[in-house]
Amino acid sequence: MPNDVRVSVVTSMFRSSPFLEEFYARTVKAISAISSSYEIVFVNDGSPDDSLAVALRLRERDARVRIIDLSRNFGHHRALMTGLTMARGELIFLIDCDLEEEPEWLLRFHEVLRRTGADVVYGVQSQRKGGLLERVSGHLFYTVVNRLLTDQIPRNVVTVRLMTRRYVRALVQHMDREICLAGLWVITGFDQRALEVVKGSRPGSSYSLRARASALVNAVTSFSNRPLIYIFYMGAIVVTISLIAASVLVVRALTGHIGVAGYASLIISIWFLGGLTLFSVGIVGVYLAKVFTETKNRPYTVIRAEYGTPEVDEHAGTPAADAAVLRR
Fold this sequence. Notes:
Helices cover 51% and strands 16% of the residues. By secondary structure, the chain is α/β, with parallel strands linked by helices. It is elongated and about 90 Å long.
């Protein structure tokens, strides 16, 4: 079947039920100003609420709605990559459906893409949203990550972006099982343009400080080996200091100036070196865990059912349609 879809909108659903109707209406209004040939791809990331039911009702009203129902919650980034793999449009608009990012931005992004001839137009926050803790933690995240990465991640980058088909084809070729989308977006290359946006905010956001710390570790260990190199230099510095200290003690002992060894300094040294060892082994362990995960070559999502894909719809309700479909 030839591809006649001009624009694909891709989003993931997790506790998204309250937003879907408005998101759909605003998206259709925005996208209709560009083309009548479009699709809206909802990826249900194991949402525990009735997001899937709401999306299916939208599908009943509009055949251009497609739904990819994952077998469980695999995580935001994996769900989005699955949606991008399934999208058929010449242009693909990636956006979260919780309305913190406005569907109407599609028109601005499309204008910049058309005018510049770029392959990607992505959003960056002109001023980071949230309270003091969110702003400070976000600043620290990008500072630490970009100090450790060769390819810099734009500060305050958001999910929303408009991409050409050729860029998306290149993006989904990455076979990472531990996915950090912000890093993959950068290393894929092509002509990418930033566009300032003002992202909204809603109560109950699940992106906690713990989640930010986990994202930091994942981003660094996915795209940089510098922590391992730093461990080597840190060990070399500690050994050098130890040799210097030992030499000083030998000289003091030979000249009769050494006194009774201090208990406090001994304990501090043990705790320091022990902590340094555990920290270094922990970093090595994180990298080994990534190697362990990547070499298993498991699919990063499992699709339970698809709705809106022609070759699937004609077999709806059959074992072939309902069985888990392994993607990558």
